[in-house]
Amino acid sequence: MNVRxxxxxxxxxxxxxxxxxxxxxxxxxxxxxxxxxxAGLGNGSNGGVxxxxxxxxxxxxxxxxSDRAWSMFQCDPRNHGQxxxxxxxxxxxxxxxxxxxxTRSSSPIVYENYVYALDGFNGxxxxxxxxxxxxxxxxxxxxxxxMSPAVGHGNLYAGNDDGELIAFDLITRxxxxxxxxxxxxxxxxxxxxxxxxxxAHDRFVYAxxxxxxxxxxxxxxxxxxxxxxxxxxxMNPNSGGQVxxxxxxxxxxxxxxxxxxxxxxxxxxxxxxxxxxxxxFPEYGLKWRHMLDENEYAKGSATISEDAVFIGSDLGILYxxxxxxxxxxxxxxxxxxxDDEGKILWTYDAGDSIESTCAxxxxxxxxxxxxxxxxxxxxxDGGLIWKRTMAAAEFHDNSPxxxxxxxxxxxxxxxxxxxxxxxxxxxxxxxxxxxxNEYTNSASTANGEVFAMTALGAIxxxxx
Length: 464
Hints:
- With 464 residues, this protein is mostly beta strands.
- 4% of the residues lie in helices and 37% in strands.
- It has a single domain, classed as Methylamine Dehydrogenase, Chain H (7 Propeller).
């Protein structure tokens, strides 16, 4: 071999050697371990990594629409709770496993080839084969837990009752990073949007980098007056209420959540809209807040449409708020700063406590009441499309999910062990499935299947 050929050969060998680590690399910052791009933006010029300078839209919001996944509570960051694929028309069980454990308030998570189910009593997230239901392995949370995990970016994110949020590697099941809160209290279900995980703890809402757990920002609830544009005045550093629900995130990066302040005078709840710097805003801050009436609280998560925020209260009022707020130029608090309050578009009085999160599909807004009603409203004006009341069932905080033209929700009444399928068009009951204990969590749906869990840990997969 002459010198020139030898040089070329060695050069090609060196190039290939340097390139090899890039092929099949696990846990890379650009791709999920299961091959999904981290922001769902495909093979663009940025290699699929989300750019903070663009809005969160398009395939970024994939959930059940992809036919394969339900990766967080209510499926996507906006909490739409719906899948475009038609759900099962009968109560036929594809598979079921009962050797699980107490689930408490967790929904099953469906991601690629697996179903993830919380064993809250034992502090585990169990993983099952999606096709057969066979148990594969578990993630150890180190303490009891109550809320749904989330899966994405090669990680499983789950909170426990010790005030920790843990990001586990999906393949090794080892923790990649851990958030430890200042108090031992349950962490609500985390929300994934782009390369950020949003979660609540105590009086705070946090935004963390999904890969290394870097804190991007945190927001503390309290008596803020004004906005970033008009200036913040925080009257009382200890005035914030606790956040019990999952944050909702709009495509433009607005983070919506409610708080419960039972110790203020008078006690009340609030709804906050916070701008997120991780997706293009120059600095985070309060865009608007809406104060509820005395002794009125928003315990469920918000649902976001293109121009509105929907959230219910324990006094039975369903609120539709303008997502842009209402800077009316007035200083109603007489503190020298103009107010930017949440603008009410419409309200609906359900006559019973609303602790669930709304599901939204093609202008139909569906929610449950604590005592057993399923309500469908026109999302534009709040007009009643239909209302169905189950005489014996109670739904508590079980949120409905929508698959095509069907709605699925289970009874939380310990004496009524039923799972229901309703017509989205008119609320007719299409089928019922009876089991030996109640359903104390919201279902999930993907690929034409419905995944449900019962209070004592049975995982049921319905499919035609």
